[in-house]
Amino acid sequence: MSVLIFVETTEGKPKPSSLEAVGYGAKVAEMLGTQAVALVLGEAQELEKLGNYGASKVLHVADSRLNTGVIQAYSSAIAQAVEKENASVLVLAKSSLGDAVAARVAGRLKAGLASNVVDLPNLSNGFVVKRSIYTGKAFANTAINSERKILAIKKNVYPVTPTSNIATVETFIPTLNDNDFVAKVTNTEKSTGTISLPEANIVVSGGRGLKGPENWGMIEELARVLGAATGCSKPVSDLHWRPHHEHVGQTGVKVSPNLYIAIGISGAIQHLAGVNSSKCIVVINSDPEAPFFQAADYGIVGDAFKVVPKLIEAAKKL
Amino acid sequence: MKILVCITHVPDTTTKIKFTADGTKLDSTGVQFVIGPYDDYALSRAVELKEQFGATVTVLNVGTAETEPSIRKALALGCDDAIRIDAEPTDAFFVAEQIAHICKQNNYDLILMGRESIDFNGGQVHGIVGELLGIPSFSPVMKLDIEGNIAKMAREIEGGKEYLEAPLPLVLGCQEPIAEWKIPNMRGIMSAKSKPLRVIPPTNPQELTKSLSFELPPPKGACKMIPADEAEKLIELLRTEAKVL
Ligand SMILES: Cc1cc2nc3c(=O)[nH]c(=O)nc-3n(C[C@H](O)[C@H](O)[C@H](O)COP(=O)(O)OP(=O)(O)OC[C@H]3O[C@@H](n4cnc5c(N)ncnc54)[C@H](O)[C@@H]3O)c2cc1C
Ligand SMILES: Nc1ncnc2c1ncn2[C@@H]1O[C@H](COP(=O)(O)O)[C@@H](O)[C@H]1O
Fold it and tell me: Which of A17-21, B40-44, B215-219 has the lowest mean pLDDT?
């Protein structure tokens, strides 16, 4: 038996959310009295360091066809690794790739899948996980009754402190056939040099209160000094002031950072749905009646054009 | 071309979620149920493809009789016929098996779904169906064009987009801006009443997960207000009090 953790990489390095998944998986392995095995697909470096996060072994599929996330091929490789390691639990971090792959692996292995898991499983009576539902408005305690279980975890549910442990690395060659590669990725457009919104520990987000795209300079500046990603409300991306992948909420990206700073956003229920699992929420709005204040930990009633420059100055001194 | 669109019947996004006193069920008093917003994108794109290629569009829901207003709305938007699998949709695998079963009998070229249901937010059903049918599945798809037997798509990824090509048949989880949301017109609403809706019992009712209880997040503490002319103090509080900087 074992717990297998699928580790997603960008440019050959594990994503931070996947490192958290390894820590979570290692804890689940400990609870089950077994070992944690990390699985990495495609060319990657320094794999033994996944031991720092609790993996005792790393399975590496060094197939360059897997350098881009081909959903079917990934699912096939992961399902085969689950069988090879006789894993009772597969853990992965939620992402556009992780979600798509988890579902296919669940279909193939007839494994019960719980998504948006926010805590360690409760093993006192079966295998019960707490997951976020209704877009963060509630939680369900869900029993997974199948022999094999898949958990897709939300960001920030199990912070890990790395150790100096080193994992053994083993090469694994799954059987991939042409059918796994029928879909072709023809091009990828990705903003580089910025912090990825779902991975960010801090998010600075702007709404229609900022009046126009020309005013995003101060939002980007505040994000830069705080080491944050930038986000926005839906009307802002609908108006093409900001790219679609920055829009946060019910129909956009769901974030759960340590700190979410909302500037000139009213706090409509659909926006809150995407941010309500943030650890700390700051709201800056000129209207003291803005509903967002009710969901906030800290608030400033004021004009964003006066307040934000002050915050930038103060943050520069950190 | 034959298209299947799978829709959910879910509480409207503005709903304040409440559960029954014993915490085992949604308290649906006063809740307005709608077609899932992502499913609406799938429906709208299907209707556009119907206009473009003369496709037939079937709408499917796994649910109890309470979901029929949403099914009729989908018919009013331009779907040709409907199937309701008469069962409580409590587990993604169970729902996916029902959908896959219908697909095996019908050879759809495209199976369109929403990126995720907004009640359980699993984002799972399309991937499971793809695997059960042995065909590709993609989500979240924000652009879809059909050229001959090939679908050309854009999928949203963190910080950008991925462009993809794959041969039909395919299962796709849709999101904006794949299509403009449509509103049914009077003619659509009238004709929907006479369009066929088949109700069929579920096959092989096997559930892999079961939700035992539900809970709401703990109430939020009061918001600490900082005067605008002392805004810089916020940064200090975030560092020393909230410990998030
Ligand atoms: C099905 C559905 C799904 C949706 N999904 C989403 C979603 O995913 N994400 C999302 O964000 N929305 C979503 N919406 C839209 C949502 O209902 C709101 O319309 C939207 O969030 C409002 O955006 P906003 O707060 O930027 O704009 P507004 O509501 O216009 O608010 C602007 C705010 O800026 C403040 N302001 C103005 N000037 C200043 C100033 N100088 N300084 C400081 N503050 C100022 C105002 O007081 C106001 O509170 C959805 C809606 C529907 C129906
Ligand atoms: N009960 C259901 N009936 C029909 N389609 C469904 C049902 N549940 C989910 N789906 C489809 O699968 C998509 C993803 O749902 P989920 O995996 O629950 O997030 C939804 O947007 C629907 O298109």
Answer: B215-219
Question: Strand pairing partners for A13?
Answer: A10
Q: Looking at residue B90, what DSSP letter applies?
A: -
In the predicted model, what is the mean pLDDT of residues B147-174?
Answer: 94
What is the spatial distance between Cα B78 and Cα A119, in angstroms, rounded to a whole number? 43
- Residue B10 DSSP SS3: strand
The answer to whether residue B242 is domain-embedded is no
Q: Is the model's pLDDT at B97 over the cut of 90?
A: yes
Q: Are B9 and B43 within 8 A, CB to CB? A: no
Contact A140 B126 (CB under 8 A): no
Q: Are strands A138-144 and A128-133 parallel, antiparallel or unpaired?
A: antiparallel
Residue at token pair 């997951």: A131
Angle of CA points A297, A237, B220, to nearest 5°: 15
| Domain extent for B9 | 2-216
- Is residue B137 a contact partner of residue A71, using CB atoms and an 8 Å limit? yes
Nearest to B141 by CA among B171, B120, B168, B117: B171
Pairing relationship of beta strands A184-190 and A168-171 according to DSSP bridges = unpaired
The reply to whether B239 falls in a domain is no
CATH of the domain at B115: 3.40.50.620
Nearest CA, atom 7, ligand 2 = B8
Q: Quick check: A311 contacting B, CB < 8 Å?
A: yes
Does residue B223 sit within a domain? Answer: no
Return the beta strands (E) in chain B as ranges.
Answer: 2-6, 9-11, 33-35, 56-63, 81-86, 110-114, 137-147, 150-157, 160-167, 170-174, 197-200, 209-215, 224-225
Domains of chain A: 2-181 (3.40.50.620), 197-316 (3.40.50.1220)
The number of the ligand 2 atom at minimal distance from the alpha carbon of B85 is 3
Low pLDDT (below 50) residues in chain A: none
Rounded CA gap, A8 and A42, in Å? Answer: 10
Count up the domains in chain B and report the number: 1
Nearest to A5 by CA among A145, A150, A117, A157: A150
Q: pTM (2 decimals)?
A: 0.93
Q: Indicate the residue of B155, B214, B242 with minimum beta-carbon distance to A280.
A: B242
Single out the residue of B13, B203, B216 nearest to residue B93, CA to CA: B203
Please check whether residue B245 lies inside any domain of the structure.
no
Q: Is A84 on the interface with B (CB under 8 A)?
A: no
Residue A235 Cα to ligand 1 middle (Å): 7
Q: Give tens-digit pLDDT for A212-268.
A: 999 999 999 999 999 999 999 999 999 999 998 999 998 889 999 999 999 999 999
In which band, very low, low, confident or very high, does the pLDDT at B136 lie, cut at 50, 70 and 90? Answer: very high
